[in-house]
């Protein structure tokens, strides 16, 4: 095996490590949604209490995203990612010792803040170790990780909770995260040709980012679409419990089925634009036509309200998250297209900040809607239209997507803008 072949294989090991980290990230954050019926009965939570816990996670993550992208760009991918995973793993384990609403809220807030490192770290990994053409494929593989976590969690967590108690689920997931930190720090590879500057600390001109229309395209796209993901992540188990009478022990399979379809969307979302570009289409056309397809696919999601069969509902929701993930991969891809690798962590971090704030608003809206008897209809109709609006906004802000050169512009400053 040549040195080039060995280096190529080692790059995919990095992808595998990032994949595992994001899987654990989603296991940690989804456990509380699956244990909601049990914990709600044990601690006498209301729907508003639960919404406040989920919102604490979202708000802490949103605020942290303003700093974690900068932190990854400034400190470096290797140590920055390790520190984030270590803290979120300990915060996840702390849930096992919480006995009050405020205790859970505090644990969720720390978990959310630390887990915000995952998105900018994953995107920066793609920008650092892969060529522009390969990045969407790497991002597509990485973007299946949330779905794999969301598949594993409903299948494993209820069974572990029934067998060993709900506290054991938090302790096990957190412990696996600490083992991951050891593996991550034990592995090193060089960056892809042309991306060496991504390994050096970057001086980020935040004012320049926030006055750059490219950044606002990412902000708007993330705000309009992330709210859908967060709403379904935290409320889908409750939807199956409330609408179809499924217990904690039986709702795992349909929830897992939804995320199987979502994982397929993440894979295909990265594959389709790459194929279009191979056939001679422009970057702009390939990204936007792919996003339009996914925006159309999600439109029928309110049909969930018309079925009395949990598996039909799982199919409808699965197709919706299939579309979400395909769309999301391309939002991440656009970010790596239009920003240099040295600052891509900051750019996606700012976008994720907006996405988490919109997710928090959607979660609070869901708690209000359920508690006032309006059910899930308002949220599902918002989900249906968000992606077409997001694509329109991206097109208006970026009529033509143009890839930037990843090379350093200046050793002392990053120049943002056209």
From TrEMBL:
TM annotation in the entry: 53-72, 79-98, 170-187, 216-236, 256-277, 289-305, 311-332, 339-363, 375-398
Recorded hits in InterPro entries, A to Z, give:
MFS, MFS_dom, MFS_Na/Anion_cotransporter, MFS_trans_sf
GO CC: one term? membrane
Q: Which residues form the Major facilitator superfamily (MFS) profile domain?
A: 14-402
Main location per the UniProt record: membrane
Membrane topology term reads: Multi-pass membrane protein
* One GO MF term attached to the UniProt entry: hexuronate transmembrane transporter activity
Say if the entry is tagged with keyword Transcription: no
Domain of life the protein comes from: Bacteria
Keywords from the UniProt entry: Membrane, Transmembrane, Transmembrane helix
Q: List the subcellular locations.
A: Membrane
Entry-linked PROSITE patterns: MFS (PS50850)
> Quick check: keyword Membrane in the entry?
yes
Q: What is this protein called?
A: ACS family hexuronate transporter-like MFS transporter
What is the organism of origin for this protein?
Answer: Sphingobium boeckii
Its ancestry begins with: Bacteria, Pseudomonadati, Pseudomonadota, Alphaproteobacteria, Sphingomonadales
């Amino acid at each position: 095996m040549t040195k080039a072949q060995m280096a190529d294989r080692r790059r995919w090991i990095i992808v595998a490590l990032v994949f595992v980290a994001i899987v654990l990230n989603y296991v940690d954050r989804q456990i509380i949604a699956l244990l909601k019926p049990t914990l709600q009965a044990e601690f006498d939570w209301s729907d508003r209490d639960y919404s406040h816990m989920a919102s604490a996670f979202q708000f802490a993550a949103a605020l942290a995203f303003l700093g974690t992208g900068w932190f990854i760009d400034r400190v470096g991918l290797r140590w920055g990612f390790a520190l984030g995973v270590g803290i979120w793993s300990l915060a996840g384990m702390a849930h096992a010792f919480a006995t009050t609403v405020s205790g859970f809220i505090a644990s969720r807030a720390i978990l959310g803040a630390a887990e915000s490192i995952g998105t900018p770290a994953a995107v920066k990994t793609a920008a650092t170790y892969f060529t522009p053409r390969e990045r969407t494929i790497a991002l597509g593989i990485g973007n299946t990780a949330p779905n794999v976590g969301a598949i594993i969690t409903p299948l494993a967590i209820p069974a572990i909770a029934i067998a060993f108690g709900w506290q054991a689920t938090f302790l096990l997931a957190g412990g696996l995260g600490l083992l991951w930190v050891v593996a991550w720090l034990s592995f090193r590879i060089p960056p892809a040709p042309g991306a060496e500057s991504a390994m050096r600390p970057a001086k980020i001109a935040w004012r320049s980012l926030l006055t750059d229309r490219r950044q606002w395209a990412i902000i708007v796209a993330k705000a309009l679409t992330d709210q859908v993901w967060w709403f379904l992540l935290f409320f889908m188990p409750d939807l199956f419990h409330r609408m179809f009478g499924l217990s904690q022990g039986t709702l795992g399979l349909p929830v897992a089925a939804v995320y199987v379809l979502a994982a397929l969307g993440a894979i295909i979302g990265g594959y389709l634009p790459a194929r279009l570009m191979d056939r001679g289409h422009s970057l702009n056309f390939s990204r936007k036509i792919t996003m339009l397809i996914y925006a159309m696919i999600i439109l029928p999601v309110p049909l969930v309200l018309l079925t009395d069969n949990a598996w039909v509902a799982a199919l409808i929701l699965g197709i919706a998250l299939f579309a979400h993930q395909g769309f999301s991969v391309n939002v991440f891809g656009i970010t790596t297209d239009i920003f240099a690798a040295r600052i891509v962590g900051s750019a996606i971090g700012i976008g994720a900040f907006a996405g988490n704030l919109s997710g928090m608003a959607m979660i609070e809206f869901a708690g209000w809607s359920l508690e006032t008897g309006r059910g899930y209809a308002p949220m599902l109709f918002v989900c249906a239209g968000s992606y077409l609006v997001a694509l329109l906004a991206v097109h208006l802000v970026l009529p033509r997507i143009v890839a930037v050169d990843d090379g350093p512009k200046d050793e002392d400053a990053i120049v943002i803008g056209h």
